[in-house]
Design brief:
The chain has 303 residues and is an alpha/beta fold. Helix content is 40%, strand content 21%. The chain is built from eleven helices and 13 strands. The strands form two sheets. Strands 1, 2, 3, 4, 5, 6, 7, 9, 11, 12 and 13 form an eleven-stranded mixed beta sheet that branches. Strands 8-10 form a two-stranded antiparallel ribbon. Helix 1 packs parallel to helix 2 and helix 9 runs antiparallel to helix 10. It is globular and about 55 Å long. The protein starts with 5 loop residues before the first strand and ends with a helix.
């Protein structure tokens, strides 16, 4: 057997009902050799995850506690010798050839350090998986208006929901599925483990960019995200975790003593947003996807 070119790291939490679909679709997504590390954060291993661990290409790691997403991904990536790392949620289904298309895009973008596919939701919506880094103005507009006016200009700008999807650079890519050059991932220190859940992908994208590498959106590679499988069982907890991570991320961008009033205002504002999310929102993202996945057909024709 040839040496694997790709290490696939998938972080699971009671994901037995979806991990089989993940692995079956992964096999059709590439002609290259790969290995899979499943990091199971569940308190007890379920039947589906145990069966996944018995597949010859899979190594099952069980830390014995919930490490969170970024920490689990770091654990799964540790010791890899492959040139590529694919980090993904368990509730991803790959379209045939999608992983090969991501690697082909890397040839077109030699300065790229991370590559993200076009992500389709089960309802046929195109998930906005390639975004700009949060700025103060766009962030406030998105946070305040996204729930009631998802096509507002601040949200549309931040989430790049304008025009036909095309291969382009982004500020950050969704952590639900992205391909990274292993050397780049290791050089920036992997995911910041102070984020238990959410914003770890934003933080990673910022650091990859600061290190001089591009983050590239590749809509010609398509995956389906079943959507928050492991978080639905504890959505209230996840909403709280999301807002804590947003506060952590934004306050770190304005960490000098002169910005103390701004950090206080951000904390109070996001605390108020959290209360509204717990009372009225179905999830912590705030703004539903506004474009159809049918738009991806034109992106596929480009290559």
């Amino acid at each position: 057997m040839d040496k694997p070119e790709i290490r696939v790291v998938v972080v699971t939490f009671n994901s037995g009902e979806v991990i089989g679909t993940f692995l079956d679709s992964l096999a059709k997504s590439t002609t290259r050799q790969y290995e899979v590390v499943v990091v199971d954060n569940s308190p007890q291993v379920d039947v589906g995850t145990r069966a996944a661990g018995e597949r010859p290409e899979v190594a099952l790691l069980r830390p014995g506690r919930n490490l969170g997403y970024g920490s689990g991904a770091n654990r799964g990536a540790a010791g890899a010798s492959t040139p590529w790392l694919l980090v993904a949620n368990a509730d991803i289904a790959f379209s045939p050839g999608s992983l090969d298309e991501l690697i082909a895009a890397a040839d077109r973008w030699p300065g790229g350090g991370a590559f993200g596919p076009g992500i389709v939701n089960p309802d046929g919506a195109l998930y906005p998986s390639a975004r700009d880094l949060p700025s103060l103005g766009r962030g406030i507009g998105h946070a305040l208006l996204g729930w009631c006016w998802p096509t507002n200009p601040w949200t549309a700008s931040y989430r790049r929901e304008r025009g036909v999807p095309r291969e382009m650079t982004a500020g950050w890519l969704s952590g639900s599925c992205q391909l990274l050059r292993r050397e780049v991932f290791e050089a920036v220190g992997g995911f910041d483990e102070s984020y238990f859940m959410f914003m770890e992908d934003v933080d990673l994208g910022r650091r990859v960019g600061l290190a001089g590498h591009q983050l590239v959106y590749v809509p010609g590679a398509v995956v389906e995200h079943l959507g928050g499988h492991s978080t639905k069982r504890s959505s209230r907890r996840m909403v709280i975790a999301h807002h804590r991570s947003m506060i952590r991320y934004l306050c770190r961008q304005y960490d000098s003593p002169a910005y103390l009033p701004l950090r206080a205002a951000l904390t109070v504002g996001l605390g108020a947003r959290l209360l509204l999310a717990l009372a009225f929102a179905r999830d912590s993202a705030g703004a539903r996807a506004t474009r159809s996945a049918d738009l991806l057909a034109s992106a596929r024709r480009q290559h």
